[in-house]
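Tip: read the tokens left to right.
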């Protein structure tokens, strides 16, 4: 049973990762997609600027992207980017990312419910809820003394 649950949790995280990966091509290609999550990482830099996909970013390749990137911020096309344009562009991406994350989290809540509703009758009884709680508790209480405390080595359930 323990094994079955960790498999479904694995499946869950694999699902989460594939949803994120599928969301990536939705980006403009000009601005690092998902940069809000990955920050200033080299990976984000490479995926944004390595346009010919040879695993290297030459300074020419880098500069070639900067112009269109600046243009993507310049919403009124006057060749300059004011603060509002810059923040609006970011806000648009942020809201898209949050909407995708929200959808993913809700899908995961449905998956978790499926795991909790053991007999799949679309009602989670207290007994079913407690079964899941017992598994959680017993995984954390790794020395099996009936108490979860610093003497238990398990870091997660
Ligand atoms: Ca402008
Ligand atoms: Ca049920
Ligand atoms: Ca314990």
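Filled-in amino acids:
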């Amino acid at each position: 049973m323990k094994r079955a649950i960790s498999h479904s949790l694995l499946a869950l995280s694999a699902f989460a990762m594939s949803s994120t990966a599928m969301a990536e091509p939705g980006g403009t290609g000009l601005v690092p997609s998902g940069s809000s999550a990955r920050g200033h990482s080299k990976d984000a830099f490479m995926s944004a600027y390595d346009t010919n996909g040879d695993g290297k970013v030459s300074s020419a390749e880098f500069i070639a992207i900067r112009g269109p990137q600046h243009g993507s911020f310049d919403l009124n096309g006057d060749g300059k980017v004011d603060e509002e344009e810059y923040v609006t562009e970011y806000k648009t991406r942020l809201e898209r990312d949050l909407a995708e994350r929200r959808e993913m989290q809700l899908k995961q809540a449905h998956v978790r419910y499926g795991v909790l509703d053991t007999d799949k009758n679309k009602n989670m009884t207290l007994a079913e809820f407690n079964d899941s709680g017992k598994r959680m508790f017993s995984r954390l209480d790794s020395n099996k003394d009936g108490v979860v405390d610093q003497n238990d080595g398990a870091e997660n359930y």
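Confidence is low (pLDDT under 50) at residues 1-29, 32-37. The pocket of calcium ion (ligand 2) is lined by residues 117, 119, 121, 123-125, 128 (CB under 6 Å).
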